[in-house]
Amino acid sequence: MLDTSQGPASGLRERKKARTRASLREHALRLFREQGYQATTVEQIAAAAEVSASTFFRYFPTKEDVVLQDDMDARMITALEHQPPGLGPVAAVRAAAQQVFASYTGADIDVIAETTNLTMTVPEIRARALDEFARTITVVAEAVAKRAGRPADDLAVRTIAGAVVGVIMSITIPWEGWSDRTSFEDTFARIDQALALLEAGLPL
Question: pLDDT digits over 63-79, tens only?
Answer without folding.
Answer: 999 999 888 888 999 99
